[in-house]
Design brief:
alpha+beta; single chain
Length: about 600
Amino acid sequence: MSFVKRTHACGSIRAEHEGHTVTLNGWAHKVRDLGGVFFVDLRDRTGLVQLLCDPQTLRDLESIRHECCLSVRGVVRRRSPEAVNPKMPTGEVEVEVTSFAVLGPAKPLPFPVSDEEQMQNVNEELRIKYRYLDLRRPAMHRKLALRSAAIRKIRAYLDAREFLEIETPIITKSTPEGARDYLVPYRLEPGHFYALPQSPQQYKQLLMVGGMERYYQIAKCFRDESQRADRQPEFTQLDVEMSFVDQEDILQLAEGLTLSVCNELIEEFGLELDPVEPFARLTYDESVHLYGCDKPDLRFGLPLFDVSAQVAESGFGVFKNTIEAGGRVRGVRFPGGSSLSRKEVGALEEFCREFGAKGMASLAVVSVSEAGEGAVPVSDGLAVRSSIAKFFSVDELEGILKVCQAQPGDLLCFVADTYMVCNNALFRLRNLIGDRCGLRNPRKLRFAWVLDFPLFDWDADSAAWVPAHHPFTAPKTEDLVYFETDPGRVRADCYDIVCNGMEWASGSIRIHRPDIQAKVFSMLGIDEQTQKERFGHMLEAFQLGAPPHGGIAPGIDRLIMLLLGEENIREVIAFPKVAQGYDPMMDAPSPVDPQQWAELGLRPA
């Protein structure tokens, strides 16, 4: 038998096909030679079916090895009652093979594709080196099928609302947007370079100037930056831009799209997730004050607290001196943490130090009836235990417990430092506590809007203002009065979607007036000549009838991560890179031939 096109998919064979002659194509998922009988689980993208091969009538069965590619013909038979496998959709039947052909032989595998449990111990770089084998696993197929369905639903949602899908260039001008560009040499003029786009930002704004009004794109983007679990050097985002809109229009569109796509996918794929609910809304200032960061995990409470006012005159020098120096004393509750050992509390202190804090102080809260020796009674039946309790009056302790909304069994964890250092350590400590207490419910996706970001951040290293997002973000009209006198006070018409502690989307109303765009560039230290060289095309376009416009860019890879509960973005990309942007499958990046260097007018360092 040679290759014959299949009549049925492996996963589609059922009891009603009994007696039918079928042709199947796929891979030998498992091979079991039991002496007098030979079984093969044949797999294609739809699932598995068991093949029964009789060594008495079929020759060369030894050529069937794990993961070889097969074409088989056979008759569908019902399994005996004791042989039925209820875990397989095809478990009531098997195919008695009458002929077969090995279409693609397979040598011994670098890892066991058919054994999901063993795959957990396979080195990730090895999996990515042989990604084409890794992709054969049903678990990987399901991830990419979900990704495909998500993109299909996104397109349908936007198409129904009269958006145009438009492609923008992949090789373009280098105009850094916060990360380093990937550069592409221009062969015809040595010393000149294209860049791969960090986003289609400028093109989509120019599409609005061009009157397209409603644009979207499933866009490939490239950033030469440090790799993390939720980042890749090339990634995919949904890029959306609209004309004649305000911030609320974009918020409603993006939230509606998210609810529609996520809830349809949860139902269609049977994901172990609760339905996604309408988004919470926080300003940037609220988010940082309550949760210490601009991407909070809202699956649980435990907001940060600030006791600076309560301890400003206390006898505890660390707190008092920090406040006198302009710092703050902030903290977070650890429910049940009063029972932690000294060693365990010390580990929390070390954790805070890793993120910039000088240390961590704590108070254990207990009920008076269980206080024991050395505890300090406070009020409402509560007492505290701590080596620092003696430095506070009862009134000060009462004020602390009231602000913290303390409960018996809590450990109150404090960091004394600048506002930003406190927040940087405490938001991570809050997440750690959420994990320890089982509060980060894996069944929930809690989306939220974070609004009203600052337009500029102060970069102490360069002693200059830098864009909080990107330089095309519009300032709030009412804050323009602070532009010259207090730039840090200027808020942006900017908004992020966050989910479970991760940023999923970022967007803004854009600048469309050339005078305001030039003003922002100047504040960022970009002189007039550089503005013309880098952004002259934008400034000129804004003088030719540019409409008000804005948009948003959600990450496709991150959405699939969230839906599948994956912790690493590489799990949801067909061919990802590993650390340092290396591709072990292609061995890229790699040296190029000397002739190519010469053609490009370049020389290796």
